Amino acid sequence: MEQVSHLYAFNHFVIAIAALTIMVLVARTLVAGTKYSSLLVIVVFGLALGSLLVHSDMATPGLEQFPVVALIGQTTVIALIASFFVGGQEIRRLLSKKDFDEECDFFSPSSQEVVLGTSSTQLTYIIRAFLLLIGIQTADVLISDRTTDFALGDSFLLLSYICLALAFILVDRKAVISNKGQYIRKGLFEVVAIIVVLNTSLWLSNVVSSVIGLPQIFFAMILSSGLGAVLPKWKHGPTMNALLFAGIPLVLAGSFLVGGSHMVEAFGIPGLQSVIVYGFSGQIFWMFGGLALLIFVGKSNHIRNLAPGLAGGLSHSGLTGACTAGDFGRTAASRAPIMINIPFAGHIFVFTILAASAERGSLMVGWTLPLLLAGTTFVFLALKSLRAANGCEKTEVKGLMLFSLGWQIMAVFGSFTLLSVAGMSLEHASMSAASGLSHFGLFAAVQEGMFGSAAASLITFTFAMTFLVHPFVFAMFGKAAESNGKMAEKAVTALASAGLIGVVSSTLMI
């Protein structure tokens, strides 16, 4: 029977890699030739397919019948470690006066299409990213002795071996690599480093848990960003390249499938309607409100500023994935990791206060109000800097760093404070805030159980549902990319106003 269980696990592995890679490829095909992000399609595709699986009786809510798909949705931290590492590198390069000589010809990807909208190198990245997410996650679980907490845990050794071995040997033969041996060894080193970061961050989280419940992602961010700062010259190997390109899209695809499976049952849960309503309204307000400030006050109406600014300002999973995948150009792609990392420096306050609040059972409003004032100050200074930038890259980056930090503080603590004052429980407020911002840090923290088991089980649904706003978001950014980087100002104003009305209305409904 043990052999049968291993075959069962392998069958689920094949189903998952087929379903998720096809979803990503179809999404890329549908947006091929446009400036729109494939995440626009993945949102709708994932939710619809997850719901259909339940409606057709192929699965139950939560997709217990497809454990590998569910497992992919739990690998958020792995995908983010890659982004944090790059952010650490970019910050070190920005702050250092040294000239880090980069050999741009170390790896040259192939541009030959094998699927409409996807080159052979990109296809390799997508497949390798899936293998890495599963392989690293299963290896991490094995090392930390947590297999009993996972479905198919008995087969994790087999899955880890197959996935990591395939990821190790999978290289696009059409790409130009100056030193193939070195490139492959870099990939192996990166895998080991990510596993070490995962285990160390989990250990640190457990060590301090008796004092304060800081989530694993907090320590993973510090460790991976620190590594990036220490290794600014590190040229990315196949592991980093794959995770940066396809890690977040695959994680979101898995999360949306699971979230879609909860779609019908979740609406019947008391109080969850308020969570979803704020999630939708918050998505619009915090996104387009931030864009309005950058455009009208900061005079920075260009996608090179808007995309990374809001990706960092909200720790926005969708925009982060689109930026790092290069959907909004090279400048946005290089700036996004910096903007993502900078707000996480302030997460020592975010996670500390929220962890203490979770243990207390209610938000510590006395601590959030001073932080809201600090966030407002950072945003003011940021907009002042951006207004005077006149296209100067260093000034723009400095302004965006301040904006990302300030807007993040305002959005996170503004949401929690508003919802708590309105009478929403902290458990529901955590889901509302994470969903209303598409905040991958909060999403991972809630998913880890920081705010209770009920929130952990439902966050994939509420997070995925509010992603239905993302067609508007990505449509606006896609249109901006096609309009020489300029975003439609009237549309931003209208959406920001609608979001404000929605946020106020949703809090009155609680």
Automatic annotation (TrEMBL):
Alphabetical UniProt keywords: Membrane, Transmembrane, Transmembrane helix
Ranges that cross the membrane: 6-27, 39-56, 68-88, 125-144, 150-171, 183-204, 210-231, 243-264, 276-297, 338-358, 364-383, 399-422, 458-478, 490-509
Presence of keyword Transmembrane: yes
Record protein name field: Uncharacterized protein
